[in-house]
Amino acid sequence: MAELSKNDEQQDATPNVSEVEVVDAHSETEAVAAIEAPVERGEPILQVRNLQKHFPLTQGILFKRQIGAVKAVDGVSFDLHQGETLGIVGESGCGKSTVAKLLMNLERPTAGEIFYKGQDITKLSGRALKAVRRNIQMVFQDPYTSLNPRMTVGDIIGEPFDIHPEVAPKGDRRRKVQELLDVVGLNPEYINRYPHQFSGGQRQRIGIARGLALNPEIIICDEPVSALDVSVQAQVINLMEKLQDEFNLSYIFIAHDLSIVRHISDRVGVMYLGKMAEIGTDTQIYDHPTHPYTQALLSAVPVPDPDAREHRERIILTGDVPSPANPPSGCRFRTRCWKAQDKCAEEVPLLAVPERFQGSDTPAAHESACHFAEEKDVVHAA
Amino acid sequence: MLLEVRDLHVEFRTRDGIARAVNGVTYGVDAGETLAVLGESGSGKSVTAQAVMGILDTPPGRITGGEILFQGRDLLKLKEEERRKVRGAEMAMIFQDALSSLNPVVCVGDQLGEMFVVHRGMGKKDARARAVELMDQVRIPGAKERVKDYPHQFSGGMRQRIMIAMAIALEPALIIADEPTTALDVTVQAQVMDLLAELQREYHMGLILITHDLGVVADVADRIAVMYAGRIVESAPVHDLYKAPAHPYTRGLLDSIPRLDQKGQELYAIKGLPPNLMHIPSGCAFHPRCPMARDVCRTDVPPPYEVSEDRASACHFWRECLDG
C-alpha cells in the first residue's frame, strides 16, 4: 500500500495531470452548487486519480473464499478538459470499458478518486450524486441491445425526464423529445415508432438523443460506432462532432479503432492491461509514439493504401495479452516487448515524461510509461 | 482460372417477400491469387461465398441461376455426395467467429483429426499425430500438450489459428476466409493475417478474402471486387482501385474512412442507408445515394463497363468518376 501511495504522488507530479482543486463542500446543497457551476473551456472538468477496480475471484460454493482478483483497472490517472475529446484505446481486456463504468458510477472503484468539478463522485450520495449523474451520460456500443424493444422511441428518449423532471416539465416533454430527434437528424414524426423499425445507424442516433436529453456536460462513448457499417460510421462520427460544438460537450471516446479515435480526439490515452501506457495529444501519440506498445499497436493497423504494404515497418507482437488476474511483475508489457530488460521485470515504469525528453519541446515529450522510451514513427511509410 | 463464378443469382424466400441477396455476381480467382470481396452488411458477399462452398441454407435460400466453375467443373451440377468430397478437401472456409464455429465439447485434436479420418480414412492415432503437426504449423505453442484442450481454453487468436489449421489440413486449392480477423484485436489480427498469407504462398492456394475493412484489403489483396446490393459494382487490381476508383460507391467508401496517418477534416459521409433487399432500387441500386446520379441511372441497370483490360465498373459515368 505504501508503494501505491508513492506511485500516486509521482503520477500527480506529471504535467498532463493537473492539480485537483478539491471543493470543500460541507452540505449537500454546497456540493450541488459546485456541480452546477460552469467550467471555463479548456479547464479540467473531470480528474481521475489512481483509479483501481479489482474484481474478486472466489472459490467454493458454501464457504466462498477469495483466491485472487482480476485487476481490470489498476491505477489510472488522467484529466478531461471542458470541450475536448479524450480518446481511450486499447485491446479487449485492457480495462477501457471498466473505466467507462467507473466514470458513470455504475461500479464502485476499489481505490482512487474521480473528481468532477472538484467533487469526488465516488463518495457522493443523494442529491449531489443525482446532479452528477445528470451531467455525465453514456452512449453504448450496441444499438440493438441498448434500446428497450418494447418502448417507443419517444419513451426511450423521454425516460431520463422521469428521473430529472426539472429538465423538462411534464407538458413539455413531447416537444422536447421531438426537438432531440431533430437534433440527431431523425424525423420528429418517428416519435411513436419502435426500435426495430430503424436501421443500426438510426438506432445509434436514438441512443445519442437519449444521452443528450438531460443537457449533460460529459458524454462517455463506449465503442459508439464499431457495430456500424463504414458508410454509416462516418455519418454518426460527423453528427457527434457537430453536437460537441453545438452543446459544448466533453467526450470520453473509448474505441479499439485507432483511425477513428485519431479523427475525433484532441488527446489520446493508450491502455494496456489495466494501466495507461501512454497519453498525449493526437499528434504526439500517432506521429511521435514513445511507448513500444503504442508503436506495435499503430504499426499493426492496416492502412487503406496498397503502396504502404512494402514501405511500412510492421511490428508483429508475439503471444497474447497476459491474464489481468496474474499480470507480469514490473512493466506489464514486458512479456511481449522486444526491448525488455531486467529492469522492466523489477520496476514498474511510471507514467511520466521520459527523462531524456524532459525540458525539450519535441512532440516526443509526453507521458509514457516505459523505462526505455524512444521515439519511432510507425504510421507513415518510410 | 481456379474458380469462376458466373452470373450467380441467390434469393431468400421469407414471410415478408423475396430478398434478392445476390443478383448476377461474376468473379474469378487464380491459384496463388488473393481476391478481396469488399462490401457492407447485406451486400451479398457472404451469401456468394456460401453458395460457392455449398453451405447455403436451402430453404429459405435458393440459387436461381448461374454457374460456379471450380477447376473446370460446374459445382451446381454435382450431386451432394460429390460436392461433399470437394468441400474441405479441395476448398475450405474460415469463419469469422471461431468460438461458435468449433464444437465446444470435442477437443481440438479430435476436431482437426476428423478431417483425416473422414476424407483420408486414417486411424485415430495417425490422425491425432497429424493434428499436432498442423497445430505446430499454425504456430500454436506447446501443440503436443494442447492437442487435448477444448476450444474455450484457447484465446481468440489461437482459436482462429485452429480454424486455419482445419482449413489447410487437406491442402485445398482454394480457401474462402469470411471476415477472418474481424473479431480479433489489431495486434492479433496482424499475426493471423501474416500466417494466412504465408500458408497461401507455401501451398500456392487461391484465397477469397471477404471483408468490410479497406485497410485489410490494401494489405493483402491482389484484386478486389466491391459489392453493393448483390452486385459487383467495381472490380480491379488493388493498386488501381485505391489510386483512382471508377465507381462512386467505392469512392465514397474510400473518402469516408478516417486516416491513421493524418488528422482529417470532416469525414465524407455517403448519404442515406444501404438498400432493403426486398425492394432494391430500380436501375443502378446505388442511385438514391449517389452524388452523380442522373435520369438514366434510375431506369437502366449499368452493365459492367470495361475500364481497362483487367478492370470493370458498373457505373454509367465511370469515366467521370475515374477523373475525379
Automatic annotation (TrEMBL), chain A:
This is ABC transporter ATP-binding protein. Pfam families: ABC_tran (PF00005), oligo_HPY (PF08352). CDD domains: ABC_NikE_OppD_transporters. One of its GO terms (biological process) is transmembrane transport. Residues 46-298 form the ABC transporter domain. Keywords: ATP-binding, Nucleotide-binding, Transport. Gene3D superfamilies: P-loop containing nucleotide triphosphate hydrolases. PROSITE patterns: ABC_TRANSPORTER_1, ABC_TRANSPORTER_2. GO terms for molecular function: ATP binding; ATP hydrolysis activity. Belongs to the ABC transporter superfamily. The lineage of its organism: Bacteria, Bacillati, Actinomycetota, Actinomycetes, Kitasatosporales. It comes from the Bacteria. Signal peptide: none annotated.
UniProtKB/TrEMBL annotation, chain B:
GO terms for molecular function: ATP binding; ATP hydrolysis activity. Its main location: membrane. Pfam families: ABC_tran, oligo_HPY. It is found in: Cell membrane. One of its GO terms (biological process) is peptide transport. It is a peripheral membrane protein. CDD domains: ABC_NikE_OppD_transporters. Residues 5-254 form the ABC transporter domain. InterPro entries: AAA+_ATPase, ABC_Ni/Peptide_Import, ABC_transporter-like_ATP-bd, ABC_transporter-like_CS, Oligopep_ABC_C, P-loop_NTPase. One of its GO terms (cellular component) is plasma membrane. Keywords: ATP-binding, Cell membrane, Membrane, Nucleotide-binding, Transport. PANTHER family: DIPEPTIDE TRANSPORT ATP-BINDING PROTEIN DPPD, OLIGOPEPTIDE TRANSPORT ATP-BINDING PROTEIN APPD. NCBIfam families: oligo_HPY (TIGR01727). Belongs to the ABC transporter superfamily. This is ABC transporter ATP-binding protein.
